[in-house]
Amino acid sequence: MGMTTPPRTLAEALRARDDESLAGLLRARPDLLTPVPGDITQLATRAGTRASVVRALEHLDRFALQTAEALAVAPDPAPYDILLGLLTGDGRDDGEHRDDAGAAIVSALPDALATLREQALVWGENDRLRLVRTARELLSPSPQHPSPTGLGPTVAEATAGMSPGRLQEILTAAGLPATHDPVSAVGALSALFTDRTRMGELLDTAPVEALSVLDRLVWGPPYGEVTPNPTPPVKWLRDRGLLLPVSTRTVVLPREAALHLRAGRAHRVPEPQPPAVVAVAERDPQAVDSAAAGQAFLAVSTVEELLKSWNGGGPAILRAGGLSVRELKKTAAVLDVPEPVAAFWIELAYAAGLLASDGEADERYAPTPAYDDWTELSAQDRWVELASAWLAATRTSGLVGGQDAKGRALSTLGPELDRSAAPEVRHRVLALLAALPPGTAPDPESLLSRLRWERPLRGASTSAGDTTDLRSRIALWTLNESELLGITGRGALASQTRALLSVGPVEAAARLAPLIPEPLDHVLLQADLTAVAPGPLERPLADMLAALADIESKGGATVYRFTPGSVRRALDAGQSAADLHAFLAAHSRTPVPQPLSYLIDDVARRHGHLRIGAASSYVRCDDEAVLNEILADKRSATLRLRRLAPTALAAHVDPASLLDGLREMGYAPAAESADGDVLITRAGAVRTPPRTAPVPVPEGPPVPDPTLLGAAVRAIRAGDTAATVVHKDTGPASSAAGTLPRTTSAETLVTVQAAAMTGSAIWIGYVNAEGAASQRVIAPVRVEGGYVTAYDHTADEVRTYPLHRITGVAELADDQT
Length: 817
Known about the structure:
Layout: H1 10-15, H2 19-28, H3 40-47, H4 50-58, H5 62-73, H6 80-88, H7 102-118, E1 122-123, E2 130-131, H8 133-139, H9 155-158, H10 164-173, H11 182-194, H12 196-204, H13 208-217, E3 223-225, H14 232-239, E4 244-245, E5 250-252, H15 255-261, E6 279-282, H16 285-309, H17 325-335, H18 339-351, E7 355-357, E8 365-367, H19 369-375, H20 379-392, H21 422-435, E9 440-442, H22 444-454, H23 470-485, E10 488-489, E11 492-493, H24 495-502, H25 505-512, E12 524-526, E13 530-533, H26 539-548, E14 550-553, E15 558-561, H27 564-572, H28 577-587, H29 594-606, E16 611-613, E17 617-620, H30 624-632, E18 642-645, E19 648-651, H31 655-664, E20 670-671, H32 706-724, H33 745-758, E21 762-767, E22 773-784, E23 787-792, E24 797-802, E25 806-811
Parallel strand pairs: 16-20
Antiparallel strand pairs: 1-2, 3-5, 4-5, 6-9, 7-8, 10-11, 12-13, 13-15, 14-15, 16-17, 17-19, 18-19, 21-22, 21-25, 22-23, 23-24
Helix pairs in contact: 2-32, 5-7, 5-8, 10-11, 13-14, 16-18, 16-20, 17-18, 20-25, 21-23, 22-23, 24-25, 27-29
């Protein structure tokens, strides 16, 4: 579909592209597909809208953006050589004393232009390069929006509206011949500033102080304030047009003069090549994998411990949503981690769908049914699920503790934590780590520099608390969270993570499995009422031990401590003293210490001696002396007890409060049902209704798949054919350009039947049931019963049309049939 003449508009340039090139545009800018444009003209119009252009500019790397910025200050259209000169300079020394990057620019510029062309930001051949108007407006200089290049307006723009007399004064002071034509005057001044020799001679006569003023303005911003009586250096520059007035108190250095002072460069530091990611350490890959595997196992254990602590019903949800600061501190104390780390584990469990709100009136957080399924998986599979959820999550725990745009604190699990850029930044950080040799730990600052080069316009935050580049902050959080999660080990990417990114979860789990220690089926009981687990425990053993003892310390070995309260907890769960003795004997590699046996027997002997029920609540006991002792204890005053019978007391508090109060007094009561049976309390009974993991907030439309792209391109081509088709003139009934064809019913029927017999295509006007009119190109297949069945080139499918809704028909020109 090549063109013999240069395109005059963006639509013509897009029309000249092949299908693969159009698909590349839609792939690079998926927002153009919503909805699918009706034809090429609609596609070009949508590609030039401000929102779409801003989104496209945000996805450019630094050099492609610098190329677009150079085009924004170049003549329109600009030849390739002019653009190249703005990026490389004219070869003169600009005083910056930097290495010449000209060769790299010459090599990189074709690729940058190809990127801009692919995204429809630039069109035209190399001798007439055009930046789309919206991009030029966004990147061009103005007092309100200075150019990213630091250049000001041209002489023609800055002198617009200036009186002819003032122009003559400037020409005279600059040593130029006088002219009464303002256009000629502006042209003469522009020619002076762009003439290397004459401009050099003019600057040689400038006072040193005037040159200092120019040095301050040359790289931007080019605007400066002046007083009603400017200093002699400023007056010298203003008289000769090197500073032109913008307002009564503001002057600007014109673009042509600034480019001369810059040696022709639009940018102070062109960056044609991405900065390299620097390595700070080379480590043994096996040591990296082992360190990451150990941290991966700890991550799985931490999430499991977190959800176990919320098994009986987690913390309440704030009215505004999220977790209170007090509850976050409490959870951090349980996990023995700092509060920001606790927020990360909570958000990770939420992102993985293991944690959610229960939806009750008194709304609380609790594990989901998916948590029970997750705990049945192997450790490596559990880690893969956590890592995959983290990679895709848009919720950003690093924001917790900051403020939103309205100054409100951001809380864990609360609203306003989604950042749609987070998944892309995480994947890009890990991709850069994966590009390094195995075992290589990068320098974080060089990694951030690379990310800023790849997306220089991205990351500017709108939230009041986000005062720095958001993408850089997410990248730093990614590095920290990768270590916590076992994605990296000692700063380098682990091989199991490389497999997760490149192959898939199955291979990642297979590589991690040999590095995770096998769970143990025993502990070591000690005489000081502690048990030592020298490694991870099998699930039934770990669950039972968690009910029977409290964790005292964690690390390579976990230390459990047996207390009266922990033993009572196991008895409340339905275990008997005999069960506990048998359990310890079966799972201890050391003999059961006598103090531990005595502790179990002593707590079991007193357990259930008192019975708590609902009156408001009551206490009953066969031993009257025990009840007398309770009544005499001053600590029972808050329970408001009174005797109902020699063996029963009534209380004005609920059974749960009575149960807790008596336990605080040192007793071991048991709750009973309405039938008098002892109630067994089992851990882990509270679960939310089935919940799905939160859906990440997308960053714009998703990238379309090849099938959708192909269908969209065909639809756009078909619509363009219908919109630009040339039809034969059928006389007075023929429609004028841009209107629906009009023919009588008889003429319509005859033309459609003839087209069906010859297999030719025709142009019709059609009004649907909603009254919307459209033009279509159809190839009739069958005409019967008042309907025509035809292949619709516009919709790229076979459709049936009622004849009475066709306003008229026209034959296509011979060269289109």
